[in-house]
């Protein structure tokens, strides 16, 4: 029975990550799923996020506002992070330039497996809030 519960929790965590665009933290995942899965623990969320990340099923987009944030889309793509509201937005129309991978590989002599490109600044909502 415990395995079935564990898979239910694991599947719910992965499903949430794959169907949200908020790039949640572990705490955000936990808070979203807690009412649906009352016996879910924050530790279970952290363990599963770590496992999914290690398997390449999700990506960590790094620390935003002091908290690690995750993306259910592990394919290379571009993000924008707002330094004011800590919002994270996908930029699907901007491709990760292959020339960057080639240049880094040439300079380091290494093999590039992945590139994460993140722009950091203020979103239009936060800029608009400052002008009032």
Could you list some keywords that capture this structure?
single chain; 132 residues; alpha+beta; Arc Repressor Mutant, subunit A; Dna Ligase, domain 1; 3-stranded mixed β-sheet; two-stranded antiparallel sheet; 5 helices
Tally of structural domains? 2
Shape: globular
Order of helices and strands: HHHEEEEHEH
Structural class: alpha+beta
Q: Please, what is the CATH homologous superfamily of the largest domain? A: Winged helix-like DNA-binding domain superfamily/Winged helix DNA-binding domain
**What's the number of helices?**
5
Q: What is the mean predicted local confidence, pLDDT?
A: 92
User: What is the distance, rounded to the nearest whole angstrom, between the alpha carbons of the first and last residues?
Assistant: 56 Å
Question: Which CATH top level class of the largest domain fits?
Answer: Mainly Alpha
- Please tell me the CATH architecture of the largest domain by its name: Orthogonal Bundle
Kindly provide the radius of gyration, computed on alpha-carbon positions and rounded to a whole number of angstroms: 17 Å
Strand order of the largest sheet: 4-3-5
Poorly predicted residue ranges: none
Taken as a percent bin, the fraction of beta residues is 15-25%
Question: What is the CATH topology assignment of the largest domain?
Answer: Arc Repressor Mutant, subunit A
Total DSSP E strands: 5
Percent helix range = 40-55%
The biggest sheet, with number of strands, parallel, antiparallel or mixed sense and barrel status, is: 3 strands, mixed
């Amino acid at each position: 029975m415990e395995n079935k519960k564990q898979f239910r929790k694991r599947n719910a965590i992965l499903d949430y990550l794959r169907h949200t665009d908020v790039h949640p933290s572990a705490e955000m995942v936990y808070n979203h799923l807690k009412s649906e899965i009352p016996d879910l623990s924050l530790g279970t969320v952290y363990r599963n996020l770590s496992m999914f990340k290690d398997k390449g099923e999700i990506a960590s987009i790094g620390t935003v506002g002091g908290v690690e944030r995750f993306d259910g889309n592990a394919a290379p793509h571009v993000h924008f992070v707002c330094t004011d509201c800590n919002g994270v937005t996908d930029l699907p129309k901007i491709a990760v330039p292959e020339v960057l991978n080639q240049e880094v590989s040439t300079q380091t002599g290494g093999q590039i497996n992945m590139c994460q490109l993140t722009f950091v600044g203020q979103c239009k909502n936060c800029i608009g809030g400052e002008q009032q």
